[in-house]
């Protein structure tokens, strides 16, 4: 049982020293104690909530990622609590206290509360178990914080601060693992992953987010139990992949998924990029190239029109841009290797995979479009594109143009500095030409010189297929020659219509 502070002593104020409850007797460093106190100073709501629960005869503790991040010096706006109060009792305690309350997770013991600018989740002590053939966890509630912490995914997420007495609870050496930068499970990894197989993906996600190493026994269990991920819903898998890809070190997590065989089951196109190579047919390592492109795309997120925030669309496009290569690889005479039309095949594979992972239609369309267009620039050569070709490039990219710029630049991973510099200069030239044409012609909204109403009036026709065909003709004219003006466009349309009528 937690030793904490002597029961006879009064509960300390948030500024008082924080007691340690690690079974090894390890104490918080002064810096770590300061960080725990800092989160309570920053969020007095936590102590207030603890007092509210204590007055009703319940225990409450700040738990999981909130404690971990506080000890790492990362304060956020999301606070997680655990309690012995049952969900209905939690609702009674927070209604009228919180500015908004939601109970969409109440079946799993969780009640959400908004207080000021904080998003708070309060969850009854619980344990989760998966049936071998079920996609949903079976939830049972517990009575002690020790029961709750042992079911947590990793020891660094199995620390808590009891409130309002500010008692640090660490029965699984999470503090030591946090200092070491390692991910271990509170119990055996086999038992943990059997309870919730999604934790195997979380291991990769936390490795990427925190830049931590995963303990060897955890990696072994992930490898041996990879097939267990099949019972987890696509929506939950997508959520973990998103967090991983949007992390600071996605290569680390993605490599772990590939090495353990988990990627074969959730994102098989990624390990498929590890193409066999031999001494007679040489080509770059497509798998390593794709991870490098992802990292280089991340470096460009703060440039151009971006706001510097992680861009899921760009990152997925960078990761998947070459997934058409395995299916299009051909060995040529003389030792060469070709991947003709891999961008088109890759776009189709991207749509298929993202649909299976239940992404939104908008994201699927944007990512697959970027994959389809990522090679278009390489037809630009040394700048011999016509204005018409530049217009079509902008038109085809549409609102994805800035992302396409970043993806195309990221796709250069050659070690030949001279070649890399030449490609960069060439793309600089293309962007300059786009900028010049945009100033002259409003390329962001390329449209014919005549609209649908004008077309119908000029040709004396009603809405229908002929109007659409006329519109396409005028759009092609606009792309080929730039703005013509209404008079010249009208004359060209009349000529086209007479020829069409025979």
TrEMBL record:
Gene Ontology biological process terms from the UniProt entry: tRNA processing
PROSITE patterns registered for this protein in UniProt: HD
Domain HD: 286-407
Keywords linked to the UniProt accession: Magnesium, Metal-binding, Nucleotide-binding, Nucleotidyltransferase, Transferase, tRNA processing
Keyword Nucleotide-binding: yes
Superkingdom as given in the UniProt entry: Bacteria
A Pfam family of this chain: HD
Cofactor: Mg(2+)
InterPro entries (alphabetical): Bact_CCA-adding_enz_type3_sf, HD/PDEase_dom, HD_domain, HDIG_dom, NT_sf, PolA_pol_head_dom, PolyA_RNA-bd, tRNA_adenylyltransferase
GO MF terms, alphabetically ordered: metal ion binding; nucleotide binding; nucleotidyltransferase activity; tRNA binding
PANTHER family: CCA TRNA NUCLEOTIDYLTRANSFERASE 1, MITOCHONDRIAL
Protein name: Poly(A) polymerase
Origin species: Streptacidiphilus jiangxiensis
